[in-house]
Amino acid sequence: MLKTRIIPCLDVADGRVVKGVNFLDLRDAGDPVEQARVYDAAGADELCFLDIHATHENRGTMYDLATRTAEHCFMPLTIGGGVRTVEDVRNLLLAGADKVSFNSAAVANPDVLTEAAMRFGSQCIVCAIDAKTVAPGRWEIFTHGGRKPTGIDAVTFARTAVEKGAGEILLTSMDRDGTKAGFNIALTRAISDAVEVPVIASGGVGTLDHLVEGVRDGGASAVLAASIFHFGTYTIAEAKAHMAAAGIPMRMQ
Amino acid sequence: MSTVLVDFAGGNLHSAQKAFERMAAEVGGGPVTVSADPDVVASADRLVLPGDGAFAACRSALDDCPGLPEALRQAVEVEGHPLLGICVGMQLLASVGYEYETAEGFGWIPGAIRRIAPSDPALKIPHMGWNDLVVERAHPVMEGVATGDHAYFVHSYQMEVERPADRLAHVDYGGPVTAIVAHDTVVGTQFHPEKSQATGLRLIANFLSWRP
Fold first, then answer.
1. What does R_g of chain B's alpha carbons equal in angstroms?
2. How close B78 gets to chain A, by Cα (Å)?
3. Residue A64 within any structural domain of the chain
4. Which residue range forms the structural domain that includes residue B181?
5. Residue A137 placed within a domain
6. Interface membership of B130 toward A (CB under 8 Å)
7. Which residues of chain B make contact with A122, given a CB cutoff of 8 A?
8. What CATH number did the domain enclosing B90 receive?
9. Are B76 and B185 in contact, with CB atoms under 8 Å apart?
């Protein structure tokens, strides 16, 4: 049976993890590769690096991170942030990423998803969607790190992204991100029901019950979280045990 | 003993190379190189055929490398060198694929590549993530790999083997999905051993130590 995935996400800027972490056993807590190794050993199902500045100048730093991570962690790695072209995808895949996540560029030009999927296969093309509630049961996409409204309906866009070639949707609720109030379940369910591909729920996790809700009520195939793991509030093993106890199939070690 | 990862698509072989290098160092498996040069392929003691993306696209990328398909056939069919296919590389071992368009495989494992059709329509395609293996047959590359061990899958099509004896393991995804196949000196995994942590590394080490 396929297991539900837990994906710790590291926000990276200029090659360093931005949100603080308090892993006790790290020599350099700001080095993403060291943190990736800890998550690898802890039984995380995938890893996600998000390049939050993603300027042209620091791209090389991200490639170096992907390369170093792939040398030590034999598990799937997704990289997103500032991905604009098929060439960006190619460079990240060659550096060691397994999946590459489009965001703003796919909203501006959904055909880039098709181009990338035709060349590398949709299995490695993720479309990240940042959505904000604009009315009950209605969500709008925002781009450029959530600063720019687009007027585009999130459910409609999710369908488009998948038709164009995205093999997975990384869905972030902007209303919930950073609140620790739990995933936006109605949004997660609406997108998950609208597309055939797996949906990763993101934004708002504060407790282990929130992870359960994202899967059981939201229909997500995977859950992404940052601070609850980085700050050591919960371990990956605790999260998995809690979800398994709630009846969700998990990969236990 | 030398191992060549056949790089016919210019894809992401970095993590695969690192995984094979690491396990080759542990089991004394010799050098690991990445190449699409038919002469390098011909001189290898064992081969790894990766592959990502659509079956037909992979097949044509392979055919676009002059002399490469012939070198692979020579190595497997005449020299009897071990070959491990991974993901679409495993699917290329079959006779034919039906992803987007019909394309021929090498036919070393008789069978066809068809879209996964789970009995439960709620199951998502691609089949993406960790699934637990059900071992059907013992094999040297499976040593230490048991039913219940997890491997990382990401694919929408699967191999339907003609001879049940060629299937070593499957996973359940609304019905059986072929996970590991083998015949003579050819082995294939639908999952990514280089992404499957301890289970995957074990399988890689077994392949590098295998003397069929």
1. 16
2. 32
3. yes
4. 3-209
5. yes
6. yes
7. 126, 156
8. 3.40.50.880
9. yes
